């Protein structure tokens, strides 16, 4: 039997971007001592008090069907958090709870685009973006944010491909680049989106991890509240990656339709997970800052390690839990370097090419192991890159 073209072409006939990660996991399963700096998985795990709240809720009987758009108290709390951080009036009618941010990405594209519509996204991008757009029946169109511009997307580049597009997906703070989009960048994006009557889908799952400057949600810009759909998640802010709880924030008319979509897909999120999320959000900003603190600390350590050498250059990490490294001096692609590092030093990082064309010649390092091990691994990576860069220069000479 033949499968649908939609599901058979999610990756357009290519890799899903996770090849090095899969190879590292196989090596670990075989007993090899691999240091994984690949995925955005906190080394601290979900806090015990959050797990206790989850357990209490499940034991008290909240294991049946939960309200599909999300329990009212949780939607109220997400709305309260959003309004406090953005200044935009937000109520539960602007919020639908989803099974993680990834489900939110799928739902927003399904809602914004009809089959065959063009859906824009910024490159570099999270690995799943093109496949998510295809899974909704739309056609993904990448807009490169170039290294020479600090990976800030330019309005003119978006404008060049915006004709007839239905949506634009952005991500700030950005994974993989660690870039926080500036107000000027977001104003430029908003201008193009308004001019072409597009939806803006804003993935803001790293909004609690900002190391320099401020995070600005484009929903807060003039004229953007009614055309912006914001993706949020408990995964990064509260180390609840496996709990699969996220949300979409948008105009109440759109949110009502997302309620219908949830009814016809996963039929809501487990009640005990929602109760745990509500408990976690009620702990306030200090709890989120505590989860973010190790990444701020490791980011500073990484910049110290990278200073004073030229083989590896960091894209200055202003947010998120990653450092994107330019390794083009080695003469290798990001994929070539990541595989060579894994083979020679048993350190796993993600190739920049996994995140699109703009990050080619880079690797993404997740700051997700204990400080000492992280510093040791990064120092080893830098030394390995230095050896390759010297060999590359010698061969070029």
From TrEMBL:
Cofactor section: pyridoxal 5'-phosphate
InterPro entries: Aminotransferase_I/II_large (IPR004839), AspAT/PAT-like (IPR050596), NHTrfase_class1_PyrdxlP-BS (IPR004838), PyrdxlP-dep_Trfase (IPR015424), PyrdxlP-dep_Trfase_major (IPR015421)
Keyword annotations: Aminotransferase, Pyridoxal phosphate, Transferase
One Pfam short name: Aminotran_1_2
Record EC number: 2.6.1.-
A Gene Ontology molecular function term of the record: transaminase activity
Record field: catalytic activity: L-aspartate + 2-oxoglutarate = oxaloacetate + L-glutamate
Domain (Aminotransferase class I/classII large): residue spans on this chain: 33-378
Domain of life: Bacteria
Keyword hit for NADP: no
Enzyme class: transferase
Family membership noted in the UniProt record: Belongs to the class-I pyridoxal-phosphate-dependent aminotransferase family.
Protein name, entry field: Aminotransferase
